[in-house]
Design goal:
GO terms for molecular function: catalytic activity. This protein is an alpha/beta fold. The protein is about 45% helix and about 15% strand. It has an eight-stranded mixed sheet, with helices on both faces.
């Protein structure tokens, strides 16, 4: 069931847009979207958590749709926003779950005393830690995006603007879908995510600079300091965020567990294993 978008004014005056699944509780699963994904891109997941009696919400990082931009944003800054929002909503215990570019931001919230766990799906490892290994196995489209971001963010914005002239699905998931991707594409979540990406791009481009600032700068914290149980979901065939990213996180975070899935892609693991991923978050929240 679709809920109304809500707004929260942060202590620095910025607006933070969020969406809940209609439940209320002091315990919550908080969803961090992937790059270009709008808060409504979590609708099937919000509905699933509601059906299980679990309060869940998604929010827009700075620059996304109704959330005010934050130039120079670091990964840790998003955790600070979540801390304020959680206090406002009376949340005293949470698990943060992040997809793709949202993964590292979910990890940052693991430092919060209210955190009882983190779940990531296709999350980046720190650029500063991996160095050139950051790019190993990455598809050309993503290599071009990072090159643009490092050279001139306006070039990257122009690249994303071209997505609007074509098929968003081809840009996000690739034009040639594997058998596992075709299975994922037949499920409701696939379309919901892609439609939400188109929505984001129709609302403006402030998110581009904010997101890539956080991806390519030091995170503002050491993921080794995140001690809460963490589940790292990683696709073996991921060409957007290759397998060494998930392996680095699982090897360097003290309480992390790697859930590596053969034959799956970046978006494929998210859709084809969605129930297992959501259950891993519920298990941490209710442990």
């Amino acid at each position: 069931m679709t809920q109304t978008r809500q707004n929260f004014t942060l202590s620095d005056g910025r607006n933070l847009e969020y969406l809940t699944n209609g439940l209320k509780s002091e315990s919550a699963v908080i969803l961090h979207a992937g790059t270009t994904q709008d808060i409504a891109g979590w609708q099937t997941w919000l509905d699933y958590f509601a059906a299980k009696g679990v309060f869940a919400l998604s929010f827009g990082r700075s620059g996304y749709a109704g959330s005010t931009k934050q130039p120079g944003r670091l990964t840790i800054d998003v955790a600070k926003d979540i801390a304020e929002l959680s206090q406002h909503l009376g949340i005293t215990k949470f698990v943060n779950l992040g997809l793709s570019g949202g993964g590292q931001h979910a990890i940052a919230t693991g430092l919060d005393p209210r955190s009882v766990g983190v779940v990531t799906v296709g999350s980046l490892a720190p650029f500063a830690e991996l160095g050139e290994r950051f790019y190993d196995g990455m598809q050309q489209a993503d290599l071009d995006e990072y090159a643009d971001a490092l050279r001139d963010i306006n070039d990257l914005i122009k690249r994303f603007q071209k997505w609007q002239d074509g098929n968003v699905a081809d840009s996000v998931a690739g034009a040639e879908l594997s058998e596992r991707d075709q299975l994922a594409a037949s499920k409701p979540t696939w379309k919901v995510v892609l439609d939400s990406c188109a929505f984001t791009m129709g609302k403006g481009w402030d998110w581009v600079a904010d997101d890539y600032s956080s991806y390519l700068q030091p995170w503002g914290f050491d993921p080794r300091d995140v001690k809460v149980p963490t589940v790292i979901w990683q696709a073996e065939l991921d060409k957007n965020v290759p397998v060494q990213h998930g392996k680095w996180l699982s090897e360097n975070m003290p309480s992390a567990r790697l859930e590596l899935r053969a034959g799956e892609s970046h978006l494929g693991i998210y859709v084809n294993y969605e129930e297992e991923i959501m259950q891993s978050a519920i298990a941490l929240l209710t442990a």
